[in-house]
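for the writeup, i need someone to sanity check this before i put it in the appendix. the sequnce is what the collaborator sent (i think, or maybe the updated version? ugh). structure was predicted straight from it, no edits. if anything looks off just tell me and ill rerun, i have time this weekend
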Amino acid sequence: MTQKSKPYLALKQKIKELDEKADFYKMIADNTYDCELFRDTLGKIIYANKAFERITGYKVDDFLNGRISEDDILHPDDIEMIKQIIQKALNKKTQVDFTFRIIRNDGKIRIVNACSQPVYKKGKFWGSRSSLRDITDCQILDEIKIAKEKAESNEHLLLKIAENFPNSYISVIEKNFIISFSSGAEFKKNKLNPKDFEGLSLEQVFGKHTSIVKKHYKKTFEGEETTFELFINNQFQIYRTYPIFEHSGSVNRILSVVENITERKKTEQMLLNSIGFLNNTAKLSKIGGWSLNLITNELTWSKETYRIHEVPADYVPDLKTAISFYHPDYKHRIAELLDRLIITGEPFIEELKFISAKGNKKWVRAIGEAIKAEGITKKIVGTFQDITVQKKRFEEEKELIEKKFLGSDMKLKQEISYSKKMIDDLNVIYEDGNEETKKMIALLKSRFKTKESTDIWNEFELHFEKINLKFYEVLSQKFPMLTGNELRLCAFYKHNLSNKEIAIITLKTDNTLKKARQRLRVKLGIESTIKLTTFLNNL
């Protein structure tokens, strides 16, 4: 062997060693668990290891030779996203991590996580290396875990809701009509364990009522909410069922909320008895009855109420149309009274103007009361009386009293004028008389004033009370600080008597009355722009 061949042999040995190392590293890459891909600077995949076949189900040669493209493997909804991520990584020469879906050769969808890193050789960018791992099973486990935690959370929330739902049994029914969940305040109230009902069939729970319950539950599994009533286990119960929709739109479970309405039914029966009683009473007293169910908004009238409204027997009333029968000046008042009755339970008795369906103007007396069950107003009921005749009679009597009062008022003023003249004449005699005469005239004036004052006031007050029955009552209630003399003054000023006329009746000076009038305005809180007479007549 020549000296010249030694370097050649050494180089050949070196190449062999490098080939062996390359084969070794390729063997490692080919047998790595993760799928390894290498893209050149243009983004073309020029290498894929054996794990590619395990993850995708396709042959590596078919993929690298172009018989199978990336688009054939990627999920259609993820193709555009993947292309944008890869192009961005190649342009910026940065590492990226992303997750996407593939469709295997056997048609199964798998979830893949990828990590792509830039590859450099002696400072020059050669492309990118990507490691792909099938994480479908991990993802499913995570989703199962999340779903389980969510289910536990939902069950806990449902328990809390059910425990605080008044008078109710809450249940979840599966597609096979087996109860999978039960809770609710009514279980505890009846000393029942809700867990004892879980796993039971409808037949085991409802017995002879199963067919009725199942009929409504079937409708709910078809996506329809239902409501129905049953009398079972000595209870009146109302059932409300709701479909529980899956993400796919299917219904595999339904929610059943069962409320114990026994007390409500007893109350309704009492109301029906009351309405029957009102109908019988109405034949004699001409008083109608009414009731409004606040749960169903159903308004019920007795026969007499229909007669007062002058509507046909098949007329279906509701709250809005019922209010519309009232005179425009009284609609706001009746609406206010009904709102207060519904919200606070405050009863009312009120006389109101009314116009029947035939246009007849009437006066009615409306009475309303609240019917409560377990502290909640469930219904409002009342009576409705036509008082047109009584009202007309009252107005006629009032008119007669007013005429008498006006006559006595005229007489009162004439007597005041006559008394004033008599006193003026006595004053003239007084000025011209001697001492003895003056004493007699002074005594006569005093007795005359006292008698006249008492007689005039008694007559005035007698007629005044007849025509203003509520005046003193309202005045005393609103202004309890007023004295008897101040109440008397209010009566005079209401009738528009002058200070001079009042002075003769009360034996007070004009100046004294002016001061009393001013004190009265202060006590009544009257503004300077308002007349005292006007204020008193508006009470």
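The domain at 15-134 is CATH 3.30.450.20 (Beta-Lactamase). The chain has four domains: 15-134, 141-260, 267-386, 402-537.
thx in advance!!
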